[in-house]
Design brief:
Blueprint lengths: L22 E5 L2 H13 L6 E4 L3 E7 L5 E7 L4 H10 L5 E2 L2 H9 L4 H9 L16
Parallel strand pairs: 1-4
Antiparallel strand pairs: 2-3, 2-5, 3-4
Helix pairs in contact: 1-3
């Protein structure tokens, strides 16, 4: 929780109302992102969704009050290069399973190779994400 307002009640349907949708934190490297994923998983905190959006890889978490936090990394190393790529061709998006992505990175795959493999569907989760249940 970022802050508390006395007397305010939790809105169970906040995903459908105007206001802050989520907070995003960007990591410098894929290894920083995956290291944080492994650390949080060890604490019992799993993402509700994970995807390679083309421009970056994102993991989305929810706290008990259904506040959402995104942690991500830029696939292109910096915003300028990513923006130039987006101007040339908008990439698609691929849902990912963070465990198989982490395993492939540990096995030696480069960050760019992981992005290409994710976009090819290699790291798709066993069950597709159900956006209405969280967003």
């Amino acid at each position: 929780m970022l802050f508390e307002v006395p007397g305010a009640a939790v809105d169970p349907d906040k995903g459908r109302h105007a206001g802050l949708q989520h907070v995003a934190l960007e990591f410098e490297t894929l290894d920083d992102l995956l290291g944080t994923y492994v650390r949080l998983k060890g604490l019992g905190m799993l993402p509700v969704w994970a995807a390679d959006h083309g421009v970056g890889i994102s993991l989305y978490y929810e706290d008990p009050d259904r506040n959402r936090v995104e942690i991500n990394v830029n696939n292109y190393g910096n915003p300028w290069t990513a923006n130039e790529h987006l101007r040339a061709a908008l990439p698609g998006m691929a849902e990912i399973d963070p465990d198989t992505l982490t395993e492939a990175r540990t096995a030696g795959a480069s960050a760019w190779e992981l992005h290409e493999r994710a976009m090819a569907g290699e790291f798709a989760p066993a069950s597709p994400y159900d956006p209405p249940s969280h967003f």
